[in-house]
Design a protein that fits this description.
The chain is mainly alpha-helical. The chain is built from four helices and no strands.
Length: 99
């Protein structure tokens, strides 16, 4: 059974993509590459498609997740104010328990 490649770290994923590219250049069939690397054949197809569109850069590890600050509901100032209200009372409780 194939391991979910999304659960692998970025370096391992990049190594798998590069290995798939090398095997493809050696004329290995898509299904064989998928079997050898333990990934789905659709993943091999997607990697090959990305290489065709973006070149060798498509094989490199990419930054994950959203950029910091995107889709925020609060301004930075509002967030700081909330953090103050959450942290100060808990510190005061800890200080009171130490007395």
């Amino acid at each position: 059974m194939n391991e979910d490649a999304r659960k692998l770290d970025q370096k391992t994923q990049a190594a798998l993509r590069k290995r798939a590219h090398v095997l493809h250049k050696k004329k290995m069939k898509r299904a064989e590459i998928a079997h050898v690397l333990g990934v789905n054949i659709g993943t091999i197809d997607r990697w090959r498609s990305n290489v065709k569109k973006l070149g060798a850069n498509a094989l490199k590890a990419k930054k994950r997740g959203r950029e910091i600050g995107t889709d925020r509901r609060l301004t930075a100032e509002q967030e700081k104010e909330i953090q103050k209200k959450r942290v100060l009372p808990s510190l005061e409780r800890k200080m009171a328990s130490l007395r």
